[in-house]
Specification:
The chain is α+β, with helices and mostly antiparallel strands and 299 residues long. It folds into 2 domains: 235 residues, 3-Layer(bab) Sandwich (Hsp33 domain); 55 residues, CBS domain Like. The protein contains 10 helices and 14 strands. The strands form 3 sheets. Strands 1, 2, 8, 9, 10 and 11 form a 6-stranded antiparallel β-sheet that branches. Strands 7-6-3-4-5-12 form a 6-stranded mixed β-sheet, with helices on one face. A two-stranded antiparallel sheet has the order 13-14. A hairpin with a 6-residue loop joins strand 13 and strand 14. Helix 1 crosses helix 2 and helix 9 packs antiparallel against helix 10. It is elongated and about 70 Å long. The structure holds zinc ion.
């Protein structure tokens, strides 16, 4: 099934539901960054979470950054997701592998670490990003983002994200977010109903692997609560905004002396984008051109 995001409401607008499939884009991230199994699961869960969080924003160019810094061997993780359905991300130590955890699943919590912080920055497009920090609950990513939503945004939320990755790559990845909207948030029964229904699911990827589509999952969860599924299906994809011109811009900031050094000692310059792994090379002619530009500007 193609990567996609679908929205729905239930309970007279009291519940907002979003589901996302990120199988292909998580596989792309795995290949770009040469991620281990557990690193694939951690980053895939975080990319799904980012797209789910970004889906509630208003302005077209709104973006969400999720940064997780735990005390585990993965080192750290950063995801940048947009309301436009684009997402990118990376982990600090992509090759970390751990034995399965006690329930036989990839030990994402062990890789991320059980202690540390989750940082969320919401850039709503007005130039004043809104940021907040919460302590990690488990390092399993989904629980941590759900904890952020409840404590920082005070929105009762149930979030389920998962990645299934095997020797043939990522075969299922995605997630679902159910939120009780402000006007219904005092309805304890509604909040509890959502919590118990989501906790009865044994995970998101088993549903995908059974061949269920997002509308069917919504139907199973909310079919008896006045479910309305929006007909728009939004495509989501891995996309980085880096470019050769941006790399040249960054090189130019180093100044004439350093550029001259690169020409003489390194025969050019090489830069790798953290977010997507793309390697950019600037040759000596291109570096000389930057020096000329700098000299022309300083006259
Ligand atoms: Zn990039």
């Amino acid at each position: 099934m193609a990567d996609q995001l679908i929205r729905a409401t239930a309970a007279d607008g009291g519940i907002r539901a979003v589901g996302v499939i990120t199988t292909r884009l998580t596989e792309e991230a795995r290949q770009r960054h040469k991620l281990s199994y557990v690193a694939t699961a951690a980053l895939g869960r975080a990319m799904s979470s980012g797209l789910l969080l970004a889906s509630s924003m208003k302005r077209e160019d709104s973006r969400v950054n999720i940064r997780i810094k735990g005390d585990g061997p993965l080192g750290g993780l950063l995801v940048d997701a947009g309301l436009d359905g684009t997402v990118r991300g990376y982990v600090t130590n992509p090759s970390v592998e751990l034995p399965p955890n006690a329930v036989g699943k990839l030990d994402v919590g062990g890789a991320v670490g059980h202690n540390g912080y989750l940082y969320v920055v919401r850039d709503v497009g007005y130039g004043y990003p809104y940021s907040s920090t919460v302590e990690l609950v488990s390092g399993e990513v989904g629980e941590d983002v759900a904890h952020y939503l409840v404590t920082s945004e005070q929105t009762p939320s149930a979030l389920l994200v998962g990645v299934f990755v095997g020797s043939e790559g990522v075969t299922a990845s995605g997630g679902i977010l159910l939120q009780v909207m402000p006007k219904a948030a005092r309805d304890e029964a509604l909040v509890q109903t959502l919590d118990s229904r989501v906790s009865q699911l044994s995970g998101f990827t088993p549903l995908l692997r059974q061949g269920k589509a997002i509308p069917e999952i919504f139907q199973d969860l909310l079919g008896d609560m006045g479910l309305t599924i929006f007909p728009e299906v939004q495509m989501v994809r891995f996309n980085c905004r880096c470019s050769f011109n941006r790399v040249l811009g960054a090189l130019k900031l180093l100044g004439v002396d350093e550029l001259q050094d690169m020409i003489e000692k390194d025969d050019g310059a090489e830069a790798t984008c953290d977010f997507c792994g793309e390697v950019y090379r600037a040759n000596c002619d291109q570096l000389s051109q930057l020096i000329e530009d700098l000299q022309a500007e300083s006259v």
